[in-house]
């Protein structure tokens, strides 16, 4: 067991793995990496139970401040540094961590613990006053946005006193002087982000319960912005776009993790790290292989280099594009890493529907005008009218209009527009940015890094987005609809699903009596209630609605006729797998 520091806080010493429901996925991954002997900055975790108490009672548990102080004392002991003091100051990150991965949905504060005093001490320690000043600005910027809910912009070459004054003027309150108060407020902000609009929309879209709550991981900072041998990056143990069994990632020198995730900076391919620091690159690949084997799934790994030393910050099962999800599931069965039942659990009906959705017809792009190019971040084809605002995208989509959301870069506050859009475009960022990760999770075609100022002129125009090749075409291009039997990997998924399913799912119309369903929800409920055991049901509804599939199975249906059949077949197999 990790070291308990009271009723609400655990120190993650790598001795064991506490329940993920208690400590959240981020802290669980920290504990697991430590248990595997990998180099991880020390951390403690405030549990999901503390979050539930805070959200229910409107205040933190009485003993939480004392337990957090004990956690900080433990970090000081582990690092030989002091929080809010010198000569070697300890700075910490404050990160959310739900039991189920919700990438980019909740809040993070980095570099907490820096003050005018500790900035000077950090500068003296590393011999670089510019690095220390940059770290101070980064903290104030995140604290203002996340905790004080201020949009105040801080000039890169300013002074901390000017930054603090600007924040106070914009937010109506000042950044607290005491680092202990800063930490408490940051923890509360992470708790509160659990019920943010974007987080609730994400959970509703993915059928994640609202009552899980988030843990808060407090981890000693390492600095990717310290020198030329420092940097940050994201590594996938397999390609999350294609599913190819090759490492895939991005690296940004002299940067911190938020620089990549936010999409405000466009990183380099991971090859840049291999060229600059080949030994560190190999150490990273070895760790990725170890973590994939231990987790039995593709890993999404965040890492930081400080003065050429590799630190792993977190790992989680990677979000992957629909094509990659199918290929990885089939490949991992062939490799003996998972069984067919687990493979079926890792592919969603929504991903199958995306794969069977329209694609560019052969020759359709020949002669078409290209209006933007960028990095392919999530495959597929989407056609719609370009809109530049997420609220507008949601509103117009609700009125039946096909829209493409184009932004300079997306943030968690754009989730509702991303859900509504047929495709997503950004001017900045790379294939591990927020837009790319969420686009893959939603199965939306996505092209990122199209260039500053490249998309605003497209507002109001109809475009076709090719997420596979990173190209945006003017107008609506011709598309074709793939068939589920034309792909070997889909045929394999179908064979496993047919074996596991307790009902027959087919696209062949029945010659006998059947009950026909349409999209009318009132009629659907009445028809389900009247079903007799062994009934055959028909309708396009079942290809598009997993809940309807589960409902008719529960009511006793023996055969489901729909086209395409595979999404409904997979839903039926997954229902049987849960029994």
Automatic annotation (TrEMBL):
GO molecular function, one term: pyruvate, phosphate dikinase activity
Coiled coil region boundaries: none
InterPro entries, per the entry: ATP_grasp_subdomain_1, PEP-util_enz_mobile_dom, Phosphohistidine_dom_sf, PPDK_AMP/ATP-bd, Pyruvate_phosphate_dikinase
Residue span(s) of domain Pyruvate phosphate dikinase AMP/ATP-binding: 21-59, 63-269
Keywords for the protein's UniProt record, in alphabetical order: Pyruvate, Transferase
A Pfam family this chain is assigned to: PPDK_N
Gene3D superfamilies according to UniProt: ATP-grasp fold, A domain, ATP-grasp fold, B domain, Phosphohistidine domain, Pyruvate Phosphate Dikinase, domain 2
Start and end residues of each PEP-utilising enzyme mobile domain: 401-470
EC numbers, comma separated: 2.7.9.1
Name assigned to this protein: Pyruvate, phosphate dikinase
Provenance organism: Sphingosinicella xenopeptidilytica
């Amino acid at each position: 067991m990790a070291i308990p520091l009271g009723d609400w806080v655990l120190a993650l010493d790598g001795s064991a793995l506490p329940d993920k429901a208690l400590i959240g996925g981020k802290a669980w991954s920290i504990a697991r990496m430590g248990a595997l002997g990998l180099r991880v900055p020390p951390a403690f975790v405030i549990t999901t139970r503390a979050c539930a108490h805070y959200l229910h009672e409107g205040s933190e548990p009485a003993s939480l401040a004392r337990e957090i102080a004990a956690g900080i004392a433990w970090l000081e002991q582990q690092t030989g540094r002091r929080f809010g003091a010198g000569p070697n100051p300890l700075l910490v990150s404050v990160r959310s961590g739900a039991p189920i991965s919700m990438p980019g949905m909740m809040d993070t504060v980095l570099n907490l613990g820096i003050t005018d005093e500790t900035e000077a001490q950090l500068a003296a320690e590393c011999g670089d006053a510019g690095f220390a000043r940059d770290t101070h600005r980064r903290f104030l910027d995140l604290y203002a946005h996340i905790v004080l809910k201020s949009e105040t912009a801080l000039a890169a070459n300013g002074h901390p006193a000017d930054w603090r004054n600007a924040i106070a003027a914009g937010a109506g309150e000042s950044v607290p002087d005491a680092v202990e108060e800063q930490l408490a407020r940051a923890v509360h902000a992470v708790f509160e982000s659990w019920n943010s609009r974007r987080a609730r929309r994400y959970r509703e879209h993915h059928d994640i319960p609202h009552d899980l709550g988030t843990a808060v991981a407090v981890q000693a900072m390492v600095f990717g912005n310290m020198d030329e041998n420092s940097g940050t990056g994201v590594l996938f143990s397999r390609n999350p776009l294609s599913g190819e069994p090759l490492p895939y990632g991005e690296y940004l020198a002299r940067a911190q993790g938020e620089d990549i995730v936010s999409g405000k900076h466009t990183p380099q391919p991971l090859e840049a790290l291999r060229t600059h620091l080949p030994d560190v690159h190999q150490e990273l690949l070895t760790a990725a292989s170890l973590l994939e084997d231990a987790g039995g799934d593709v890993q999404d790994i965040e890492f930081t280099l400080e003065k050429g030393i590799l630190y792993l910050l977190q790992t989680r099962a990677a979000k992957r594009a629909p094509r990659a999800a199918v290929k990885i599931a089939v490949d991992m069965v062939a490799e003996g890493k998972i069984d067919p039942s687990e493979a079926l659990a890792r592919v969603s009906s929504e991903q199958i529907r995306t794969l069977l959705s329209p694609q560019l017809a052969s020759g359709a792009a020949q002669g078409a005008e290209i209006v933007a190019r960028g990095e392919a971040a999530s495959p597929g084809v989407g056609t719609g009218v370009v809109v530049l605002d997420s609220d507008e995208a949601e509103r117009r989509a609700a009125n039946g209009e096909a829209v493409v959301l184009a932004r300079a870069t997306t943030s968690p506050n754009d989730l509702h527009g991303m859900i509504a859009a047929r495709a997503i475009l950004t001017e900045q960022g790379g294939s591990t940015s927020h837009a790319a990760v969420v686009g893959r999770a939603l199965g939306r075609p996505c092209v990122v890094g199209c260039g500053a100022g490249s998309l605003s002129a497209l507002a109001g125009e109809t475009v076709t987005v090719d997420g596979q090749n990173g190209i945006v075409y003017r107008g609506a291009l011709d598309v074709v609809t793939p068939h589920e039997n034309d792909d070997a990997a889909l045929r394999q998924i179908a064979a496993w699903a047919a074996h596991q399913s307790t009902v027959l799912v087919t696209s062949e119309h029945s010659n006998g009596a059947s009950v026909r369903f349409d999209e009318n929800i009132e009629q659907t409920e009445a028809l389900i209630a009247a079903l007799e055991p062994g009934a055959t049901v028909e309708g396009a509804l079942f290809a598009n609605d997993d809940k309807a599939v589960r409902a008719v199975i529960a009511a006793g249906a023996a055969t489901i006729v729909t086209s395409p059949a595979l999404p409904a077949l997979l839903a039926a197999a997954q229902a049987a797998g849960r029994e």
